[in-house]
Protein 1
Amino acid sequence: MSRLIVVSNRVAPIKPGKVAAGGLAVGVYDALRQSGGIWFGWSGEVSSTPQTNTETVGEITYVTMGLTRQDYDQYYRGFSNATLWPIFHYRIDLARYNRQEYDGYRRVNGMLAAQLKPLLKPDDIIWVHDYHLIPFAEECRRLGIRNRIGFFLHIPFPPPEILTVIPPHNDLLKTLCFYDLIGFQTETDRLAFQDYMTREVRGILEKDGSLTAYGQNFRAGVYPIGVVPDEIQELAESSQRRRRPMRRITDVERKKIISVDRLDYSKGLVERFKAYEALFDRFPEHRRGVEFIQIAPTSRSDVKTYQHIRQQLESEAGHINGRLSDLDWTPLHYLNKSHDRRVLTGLFRDADIGFVTPLRDGMNLVAKEYVASQDPDDPGVLVLSRFAGAAHELTSALIVNPYDCIGMAEALDRALRMPLAERRDRYEHMMSIIRSADLDAWRDTFLRDLRAFSSRPKAQVQASPLFSV
Ligand code: GDG
């Protein structure tokens, strides 16, 4: 069996149970833990003399390297997080473009490919993750690496009208064609990509479903990322058992709403806080009867737009509690730090509502984790944004538009009143989907397709005249 080499921007030597906040880390770690292999990427260190480190923990060998300050500023803070992230989340208003940053992005991809090359065996399968590494395969081909290389995009893929705002969109998307297989979270994302390839650069959709563009033939497919439901259920149960004696601080039993997100403007936190406030204005009978716990660990705190969203949220949270709190009721608990995974699943299980309302999200694992944590006999209700990839699968959630605060408040009211039989029906439907499209299915179908697709040789970076465009 060929080895699996996972390449992602960030690699943290993760000890069992100490998983970093972030969907990619959670998903990749769980996938590699089962198959074994190499996890290759940036260590998170920034230094003038970057080092490479190798560490094996269990079945996984972590190979990590540092970045210089210039690499970090241009590749990570710059083009990846100030250009690609906002644009791929449909936020042209928050994006900026700087040519030096794009050059740095290309340079770091080249440097990473060169560092990976000596570690490779001819039949290794390489699986590259996310928007930081779009040009990685082209750099590998340039170095003569002929292994199968697949790419999975964890975030949404925007429609061409938005994508083409990025000045070097052609150059960037051309590099993507050097992968053998490109995976997306939803059909909407795959179609947007196909639309770009066929309309914007006159690529060809072949009879066998593959695409030919820029002289390369490749496949694009849909692989919704999943979770490990049994493990989550066990964690949630054991955590709830441990916490029960400490649960009641006062004698009042209140309904609980939970949200967990990296602190990011794509997650719709400001709109969510406003919707929560609107719940008490429209349905005053819920006052004092509900508590909302928002856990939002800081992320990318040195990118300006992230500092701004943090200030906005602090002010909104202060406003809600200032306006509504009483001596024995704090309506909103806004916790700006990360928590242990076990604690999170316990909070999910305890909560009557999982409130997951991103403005745009590739998938959103929290939605699936919330459902998987529930007590099957007395499950809570998931209120889910239509713009999360998860809404394509979890159609039995209460689906909301995250731009409509009153609509979200109405959904909260409905969830708070929902009878047990309806909660169970919705839960069972969602659980059957979460079980059949779990994390193993995500990894296995992607890797099966990558192995199966025998693409044309990709060792040449120059376009061949045999192909169109
Ligand atoms: C990207 C895409 C896509 C959060 N806080 C803590 C913590 N978490 C865990 C959650 C969940 C993960 O981090 C977050 O995953 P999401 O999917 O919700 O969101 P992103 O971080 O934006 O992930 C997203 C994902 O990649 C996978 O493809 O779904 O669309 O944006 O697992 O539980 N974990 C711990 N403490 C925390 O405080 N331990």
Note: Residues 245-250, 462-469 have pLDDT under 50 and may be disordered.
Protein 2
Amino acid sequence: MNARAPKGTTDMLPATARAWEYLTRTAQEMFARYGYEPVYTPLFEHTEVFTRGIGEATDIVSKEMYTFEDRSGRSLTLRPEGTASVVRSALEHTLVPQGSSIKLYYAGPMFRYERPQKGRMRQFWQIGIEILGAAEPSADAEVIVALWRFYEAVGIPASNMRLLVNSMGDEACRPAYREKVAGYIRSRAGDLCGECNRRADTNPLRAFDCKNPACAGVMAEAPLLRDELCEPCAAHYAEVKTRLDELGIPYTEEPKLVRGLDYYTRTVFEVQADAGLGSQNAIGGGGRYDRLMEAYGGKPTPGLGFALGFERTLLAMEAAGAEVPAPLLAEVYVARVDATVAGEAFAVASALRDAGVAAELDHVGRSLKSQFKQADKLGARLVVIVGPDELAAGEVTLRDMGTKEETRVALADVAGAVRRLLG
Ligand code: AMP
């Protein structure tokens, strides 16, 4: 058998898993302060949830989905992102009755069949938030601020990040603009790659995202939506920027930022960080998707959110020297003098754990000397020495690993004595 994880996937070994738990814990605590509640949707959905939501002509839907038939012949797809599922769930459970709103956050794995490279995986992990039912520009600003503050909270300084914002317009102004870009692409057909030429018919705005340098040069001169926004979209965008200005959140307007999903309307944003990530430097992003609920057959319900990528965020943290708090593996090590007292040593360790102390003991038959080495390695501040002589007197020895001082305490009071010594 092939004992390696599939291409584009990786095991989250303890150091990385600890980082994931730290980020999700930080997200939980922080987004709770902003009023968000947790939601967990299935890892797979009916395929239409994504084809209809994200859009047939996007890279994700046309090239990257893990789609399969289950044993009953239903077409199912591993979720490539979180928003479509959250909106499907909100519709199914009527989470947003007319006139109300809800704030949700999620965390978990996503799946895209992409060409793996640094910061680009086939199974990757995202943390995201969504607000459904909120149309006002302050909601856009809140979501952007929450993303920015999250990165700061995990130790990525503002100076290492760039926040890009743009408005994608809405159904009033975007269709005409799309046609204009399609016309521009056709007028420059000879200077653009085959894929960009095809995009003129399918998804012209995606040509702004083409990685081909020649295309990027041509698209740099394309008409910009910023100059064609309808009045309500322009006013909405201006107010989002004012809210960000008032908080001193530094942003750059990037009129060519379109992002890879069809469902966006009005505000879109992305945070980029330098972490040797090359073109994978977007560590998180999102936007507004006011028409998505209707695409699923629901009532018009404005919505917006962001998703941040765990792998890239971790790389940006490493580049910034940000640390994941070290785990407390053992405050106390319970060492046994010989095998005759193994049962008592186990009982002492259990009693300490029950009393809320992080306690470790030997399960591999180490000598007393190597148990002490192990205690050192784990960073234990105290060692409880359990030996036949002490036990005969109803006691154990407590050794302070810093001062090397030893004291005898009653076996019955070991948890109390340890807690007093640990302070
Ligand atoms: P998106 O859902 O495409 O807007 O992506 C949001 C964030 O998820 C990105 O900024 C990345 O940090 C992360 N991300 C997206 N695709 C991948 C991938 N294939 N591998 C790792 N991270 C990804």
Note: The chain has a mean pLDDT of 94.
